[in-house]
Write a structure and sequence with these properties.
Blueprint lengths: L11 E3 L2 E7 L17 E4 L10 H4 L4 E9 L8 E6 L5 E6 L2 E7 L5 E4 L8 E9 L10 E7 L5 E7 L13 E6 L3 E12 L4 E11 L4 E7 L5 E6 L2 E6 L13 E9 L2 E10 L4 E4 L2 E4 L2 E2 L2 E5 L13 H13 L4 E3 L7 H10 L2 E5 L26 H4 L3 H15 L5 E8 L8 H15 L6 E5 L17 E4 L11 H18 L5 E5 L18 H15 L5 E7 L30 H10 L9
Parallel strand pairs: 23-24, 23-30, 24-25, 25-26, 26-27, 27-28, 28-29, 29-30
Antiparallel strand pairs: 1-12, 2-3, 2-4, 4-9, 5-8, 5-12, 6-7, 6-9, 10-11, 13-14, 14-17, 15-16, 15-18, 18-19, 20-21, 21-22
This protein binds (2S,3S,4S,5R)-3,4,5-trihydroxy-6-oxo-oxane-2-carboxylic acid.
The site of (2S,3S,4S,5R)-3,4,5-trihydroxy-6-oxo-oxane-2-carboxylic acid has 10 residues, from loops.
Amino acid sequence: MLYPIDTASRVVLDLSGLWKFTIDEEVNEIDVDQPLPTSESVAVPAAFNDQAVSQKIREHTGFVWYERNFTIARALCDERLVLRFGSATHQAWVYINGKLATEHKGGFTPFEVEINDFLVPGVNRLTVRLSNILDHTTLPVGNYSETKDKNGKIVRNVDENFDFFNYAGLQRPVKIYSTPHNYIDDVVIVPDVDLQKGQANVNVSIKTGGLFDEVRVTIKDEDGNEVAQATGTQTSVMINDIKLWQPLNAYLYTAKIEGIKNNKVEDVYEEAFGVRKIEVKNGKFLINGQSFYFKGFGKHEDTFIRGRGLDEAYNVHDLNLMKDMGANSFRTSHYPYSEEMMRLCDREGIVVIDETPAVGIMAAFNFDVSILEKGGDFNDDTWELMNTSEAHEQVIRELIDRDKNHPSVVMWSIANEAATYSTGSREYFEPLFNLARELDPQNRPLTNVTIMMATPKTDKCDDLYDVIALNRYYGWYVKNGDLETAEEQTRQELLEWQKKYPEKPIMYTEYGADTVAGFHSAYGEPFSEEFQEEYYRMNHKVFDEIPNFVGEQLWNFADFQTKFGIMRVQGNKKGVFTRAREPKMVARYLSERWNGIPHLGYKK
Ligand code: GCB
């Protein structure tokens, strides 16, 4: 799906700003033919939860309503008009002037609908009903229950099967864009790079709506100079003397696509792309033929007041903090991030592991590896309880469709910490891995980010992963505070993986320790800033001994909000930065380490 941009043939109207808002108490039915009966305001894009200063609203589970009016200028009325949501969390029903225009399930991917037939002259009313319910059919997974209060009213409850706050609402931009009635619908760009010759054969496939006599593709360099041209909807162009997209040294070409009818350019769209080659071989992760070492973070879209709402100032600031520390990459833990962030990463040369919202596919959360050590088949009911295949398939389709052209995306993460050690996991995952391989036009590597219980002995799906990605908490959830034993356990497990799969690169996608900013300890006690640093030093010592260990993405970039629970005080404190992005003590050590490790060619 194309990102909406202004071009010579397209206009984008941004519906960000203040909308009307109400939670649905499910007492009186909301009549979509009437204006929403509320005087509450909410800002879009942002989660609704923290805006209201009301516990009832913040913790509301069920349905909420958004509404605003819009007017289409006369000059655009004859164009094709498309209403597009960057996301709507987690399920949306969209009404225009009281008529249902579209529905969408899944809270982190865009969707759109042509609205011409719904419009009236003058002021139009856009109403959105949203659900933030998560259950065993959705991604992420929630444990859903319903009770009745003393008046017989339904009380809905979601116990999140994951460790982040269930922010919801219209958290990404809502836009209307125009196109001519003959239009460019999608563009797929696949650069086939010959590193020796310094050339790339760039395959460009274009999907159109309506009819063109001809479709023209012009490739421009960063200075706007034309470097190649071709015609056709399935075409390829050769670029000589290529400038590669490199980590932290991005170069973006632009494909200008023109749909021509009666010798007139009717529609124009421009898509930026990078020329780069990703390979996994001999235990290495290669970018442009050189071994890449991942240095960075698991993150969250999580800021004060906005929740998971898009904040481009935070995005720019976060990437600048990363660059300052010598980091080069992050994972979109635990859901697809905004398109604006993906475009920024393309521009900045930040390397991204792009993750689906498949988190919580596990019946019982546990870090206790010992229960598996008895051998034999292990069944924790996950694959009987969970019914997420359909949602998983849908989101793999939508994510790859959305992000397929981004040079920053170097690998897909199919899930975070699913019960891949449990009987039934293989039957669940194999078709999903096959689907992702079939769908990605750039054939990127795939991984599943594994929980501690998925070891070389117990993981039933590990042969499907191109890269072994490990979330490990030796010294924190296991052997808390005992870094000596943790070091041994870390070493032993990494060596076991390397032995089992000598050709697969191994990386950490999570490791960390909750740390209260300002808490110090002469004894390196857990939760102190000293412990956080010692914990990372221990891990890094082991990483550097393992030849096929190709990356360290720690948990987490910043402290973030979670649900309440005895394990969390004002959220998860594993940040290297506080939620306000102030560095904890460990940031200096990490900065020294990472600035000393080259992005490419560290472990040859
Ligand atoms: C994990 C999860 C992550 C949690 C983290 C923690 O394994 O993937 O979502 O936040 O552990 O801090 O417990």
